[in-house]
Structure formats: C-alpha cells, structure tokens
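Hi both,

Apologies for the delay on this - the queue was longer than expected. I finally got the flavin mononucleotide-bound model through. Below you'll find the protein sequence and the ligand SMILES exactly as submitted, and right after that the structure tokens for the full complex including the ligand.
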Amino acid sequence: MPQTVLAFAGSPRRGGNSEMLLDRALAGVSAAAPEAVVRKVVLNELRFVPCQNCGFCSTRGYCVYAAKDDMKGVYEAMDAADGFVVATPIYFANVSAQLKAMFDRCQSLWARKYLLKKPHPNAARRRALFLCCGGFRHDRFYQCSRQTVAAWCVCCDIKLTGELFYPSVDARGDIGKHPTALQDAFEAGRRLARPEASPA
Ligand SMILES: Cc1cc2nc3c(=O)[nH]c(=O)nc-3n(C[C@H](O)[C@H](O)[C@H](O)COP(=O)(O)O)c2cc1C
C-alpha cells in the first residue's frame, strides 16, 4: 500500500505564507515518495459546525454531525492517512479558527481512543509535520499553537515528528523572502515521507 499523506491548510488566505510552506513540504513528500497519495484540504473551503459537546461521541465513538457536514470527508481521510502535514498562521497566539474548529471536532477520536479504548489500528505508522508562521518577531505566540497541535496529535494517535516555525512573516509572500524556509519545508516533507532515510 502506498503511504497516504493528508495535508491541512489552516489559513483563509489562499497562497499565503503557511500555504506556501505546506506546498513545499508536499513537494518534498512527492520527491521522496512518488508513489505516495497526497491530499490537501483547505479548511476554509469546508462547511462544518464547531463541536457542540453533545456527548454523542462519548458512547458511539463517532460524531453525530458527520452525516450533516463536511467533516465526514475529513474523518474518512484522517482514518486512511499515515502522514499528516498541518499548516497554520498564528492567530491571537494560537492556530487559526479554521484549524481549531477541525481539531475540536476530533473530540470523537479522543472518545474512541480514551473512553471506548479503541486506538487507531495504524497508530505506530502515523506521523505529522507542523508548519507555522506568525507576524511577530518572537516565538512566544508559537508555544500555544504547538501545544494545541501536539494535543490533537496525541488524541488522534499521530506522532508529531517534525515542526517548523517562522516569526516575522506577515505580508503575503513574506515567507518566500526567508533565506531557508521553503527549502526547510521541502526537506521536512522528504523526512516525513522517508524517515528511515534521515540522518539520526
Ligand atoms: C486575526 C489575526 C491574528 C493574528 N495574530 C497573530 C499573533 O498572535 N501572533 C503573530 O505572530 N502573528 C499574528 N498574526 C499575523 C499572521 O500570523 C501572519 O500575517 C501570517 O504570516 C499569516 O499567514 P498566512 O499568509 O498563511 O495566512 C495575526 C493575523 C491575523 C489576521
């Protein structure tokens, strides 16, 4: 089975800084593993309700709203994926609302794992790369974002194996002026696809 990589574009700004990072990482995935199936989800183009804490998933292990909105496809894609790339700008010291709303809807996966004791059968293979940028000069705002992404990974049985953060990146396209960011993302994508080929 070829590996399947699922990418989440968290920004509402198409072609913006975090999506440029994401696209380079996916190019790295394809360079290292041409047979890999790569799927990119632009969260801002999906329509789904935020988690309502209705409790349904606590006993059933799936979300009652999945049949009614675009999260159905996300759940299916997440279930099938063994590689994940998550890209977001920092918004008010955390990930974008689009990404956070998707994370919250993964409460059903938390319930499946921790309440129903059904970890993902492919847990040992599932890895993620986190890509992030923010307009401020320091990385203080990044700490919240990485905690949020790390928590999502744990709940979804995904090991967070790589992360890249770029501060002082604000105007559209700023990331392209960084001396190494796009190449870093490409290499990180390669490592996600072929961890065994990475230097120890
Ligand atoms: C609503 C909003 C909130 C933001 N909050 C922060 C912040 O807390 N810290 C920060 O470093 N940058 C913040 N920024 C700046 C963005 O992170 C920055 O412009 C980023 O490069 C946008 O990436 P994108 O092109 O992928 O959307 C904010 C931008 C917006 C629109």
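Main takeaway for now: The mean pLDDT is 96.

I'll put the files on the shared drive as well.

H.
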